[in-house]
Amino acid sequence: MFYLNRHPDHQKPLAPVDAETLGVAAATEVERFLGFRDNHAETPLRALDALATELGLGAIHLKDEGFRLGLGSFKALGGSYAVIRLVLEEASRRLGRPVDVAELQGPEIRAIAQAMTFACATDGNHGRSVAQGAALVGAKAAIFVHAGVSDARVAAIARFGAEMIRVEGTYDESVAEAARVAAEKGWTTVSDTSWPGYERIPGLVMQGYTAIMREALRGLDQPPTHVFVQAGVGGIAAAVAGHLAIVLGDARPTVVVVEPARAACLFETAKAGHPVKIAHGEPTVMAMLECYEPSLVAWRVLARAADGFMTVDEDDAVAVMNRLARPAGNDPVVVAGESGGVGLAGLIRAAADPAIRTTLGLDAKSRVFVIITEGATDPERYAQLVPARSPAART
């Protein structure tokens, strides 16, 4: 399914609060914070020349977030960044002076962090980021996981010392439970989705993701003409689309948001013109994108900065994992988890459909950018879906 953005706000400037969150100054600050992380390195930017030729495109470049901060996912940029920011803000309040990230490991700051607990719900990757951030600053973490989160993903979070709390039901139900318990116990909720009255912290999480586009734009000879980016609640898609709209203005690329057909809350939201909660149906293999209600902040950005919304099927996601593992020509081998290659799957689907291809202006001059949002963060599942190509998870 494919739908062009017809929202009245399409192509209008971002709301001032979102422009501040996703703008150049904020992205610069994110990169400054990353400079204080021991294991920070820019993730690889790779060209898929053979696939571009096959699809009749000028170029395809992908950013491989499977190498991000030892967590194997772009989510490493969001939750941990928000945790660090919130600790510094609390320290500034208590000490009565500005506290910089350079002081993060000082005894005064550590003592303040030790009294703080950060909570979130997760499909797997966001929880790892929040737990890692809490461990870095000496705080506690309570991570809520729903019934569909695998034991391997739970174990990957627990190794950071987080308290793991199982919740029956879906991701959206775990979000509600995490917020309820956190409010009851005085914990700080660090969610990657937003709801009425709760926007600033999800905004900080999205802000962390701007580092991806900062690095990509530095590494590309020319800005992309098209971006295909996957979405669950919409945080990464909004961060990418919003930052590009601010930095490139009228020269910004065409941005297409790609979701699983079984969990297409943003697609349905775009069609309705307002946030829509969709019914929970059969689970999708794209586990990190199995969300049934969009983030309000993300939708506010995407209504303005996304140009199209589309869905891909289960087979599309698995096929792209295998294509990346066994590439044609001189294209590099790329390890993409179940949700990691969904943006690329959307591109392949769009390029093969004459109507969508024409609508989006995909041709031999197109320079397309996609993000591999996760590596094999669940090695057992990866081995099932990509037989005989089962590397250890990037941890």
TrEMBL record:
Domain Tryptophan synthase beta chain-like PALP: 39-356
Enzyme nomenclature, EC number: 4.3.1.15
Pfam families in the record: PALP
Zinc-finger among keywords: no
Lyase as UniProt keyword: yes
Coiled coil: none
Superkingdom to which the source organism belongs: Bacteria
Cofactor: pyridoxal 5'-phosphate
InterPro entries linked: DiNH2opropionate_NH3_lyase, TrpB-like_PALP, TrpB-like_PALP_sf
Entry's Gene Ontology molecular function annotations: diaminopropionate ammonia-lyase activity; pyridoxal phosphate binding
UniProt KW keywords: Lyase, Pyridoxal phosphate
PANTHER family per record: DIAMINOPROPIONATE AMMONIA-LYASE, PTHR42937
NCBIfam families linked to this entry: diampropi_NH3ly, PRK08206.1
Full protein name: Diaminopropionate ammonia-lyase
Originating species: Phreatobacter stygius
